[in-house]
């Protein structure tokens, strides 16, 4: 495996903690729950994107770029962290966000502006329109003599997913040191990069661990297709003699609710339960829905009481403040 040969710039505080959650486990009458705290990666209030950006911006520096362009929703964690990492490394950040512009900047959008990113909000949910805006912007920058580096939504391509291949090896080392056999990992899966890296890691190490993605928006088929595509590119990137099988991928889209970015009642309940049992804060866009998914699977007796399930906390807490009205009750 050639992971160590990829260009990389240190951005995250690693390893992130692996914490047991006994009060949550007792409350749910479920398996032994552990939380992998990638909300504590340190960059710009933390989150999983720091692992991806280490490799993506390593590539940007290697190519001599001076501008970083990325895309996301208005409350994009990835855009916030990309803006911060770009400033830290001397790149100019531009974030192209899709959705309705809010009356007042809150949460991640406010942080984008504090980091001094050029923010462009496009009122569309059409990925092709957003991609066209990014291509036009990059073309204009090149005409002006700049060298832009375009990062996809969520940092989710093979280069970004390499960060989560390494993250799996980190978790495996922590679990082995603690004498814990991990049976499953549950996390929010939307753009597919995190699941691609974790899934590849479990196959590389022949661990038998199930990687369970809980969609925060797209249909299962969309997420699965994204993951398969990224995994196929990742194994080429790191020179693995292995290919993914579609039947191995586990993605649930039962916990999305109305649509991406709109918290469900189950999501809000999950956030309150984790806060009040473990003092850990989730977010209403990704991790809240992922935890609602884990709770739903426990209620369906998907896991036995003696199993160890890792909930991968991918961060995103700044979005809580953009959804303050949803938390006024309860």
UniProtKB/TrEMBL annotation:
GO biological process: alpha-amino acid metabolic process
Keywords from the UniProt entry: Pyridoxal phosphate
Residues the record lists as N6-(pyridoxal phosphate)lysine modifications: 49
A Pfam family this chain is assigned to: PALP
InterPro entries reported for this sequence: ACCD_DCysDesulf (IPR027278), D-Cys_desShydrase (IPR005966), TrpB-like_PALP (IPR001926), TrpB-like_PALP_sf (IPR036052)
Keyword Ribosomal protein belongs to the record: no
Cofactor(s) listed: pyridoxal 5'-phosphate
Domain of life, per lineage: Bacteria
Residues annotated as catalytic: 76 (nucleophile)
Tryptophan synthase beta chain-like PALP domain boundaries: 10-315
Molecular function terms, GO-annotated: D-cysteine desulfhydrase activity
Entry-linked PANTHER family: 1-AMINOCYCLOPROPANE-1-CARBOXYLATE DEAMINASE-RELATED (PTHR43780)
Family assignment from sequence similarity: Belongs to the ACC deaminase/D-cysteine desulfhydrase family.
Protein name: D-cysteine desulfhydrase family protein
Species per Swiss-Prot/TrEMBL record: Candidatus Segetimicrobium genomatis
